Amino acid sequence: xxxxxxxxxxxxxxxxxxxxxxxxxxxxxxxxxxxxxxxxxxxxxxxxxxxxxxxxxxxxxxxxxxxxxxxxxxxxxxxxxxxxxxxxxxxxxxxxxxxxxxxxxxxxxxxxxxxxxxxxxxxxxxxxxxxxxxxxxxxxxxxxxxxxxxxxxxxxxxxxxxxxxxxxxxxxxxxxxxxxxxxxxxxxxxxxxxxxxxxxxxxxxxxxxxxxxxxxxxxxxxxxxxxxxxxxxxxxxxxxxxxxxxxxxxxxx
Length: 253
What we know:
By secondary structure, the chain is an alpha+beta fold. The longest helix is centred in the C-terminal third of the chain and has 18 residues. The mean pLDDT is 91.
């Protein structure tokens, strides 16, 4: 509390440091959590889906959101925990992921020194941070998950074997649905077609594996792309640069 009895907006800063193939069980906390990923990659997972947070991303988890985390590479960064009331007033009410802009980077660098600042000096920086974060375009690194157990069986199988090229008829037979019901239910529960979901899944897995240091060729083949050139074209269309360039950027200090 400050001298006027108001809770300090920024409650705690904590380094983010996890090894590959580690994770956190599903949990929720009363505070809002802003996650800065400076190296590596992690996924935040809820019942609704999963968000991939690679290096250079800033993710928000609102107060009370039940979620778990999986770390796909040696991951480093910083966690910022915010007062519940301040979080609810100034930041989104749902998980959100943005690319770290120069403005956000400068604000966070200043806020890293915030533990020594009086409350009245800190609040303007946090208000600008909240506005800049909310105004930044959202990264589309989200994979929705269905709730129907049969559809979950399908998506789990595709995640385990992303190079599966079976068509809708084969998938429908595997889970005991008609093709029409599969298409309709999948669209209702995920907001996506099976084909588009599979494309998004492959892109997120590719980012995950590139962050872990796998070669572009092995990632392309393992993710189920028809060729390395096809993978590079898809990656550039979505990420704005080639997989190799993205990997070098991710590895740079």
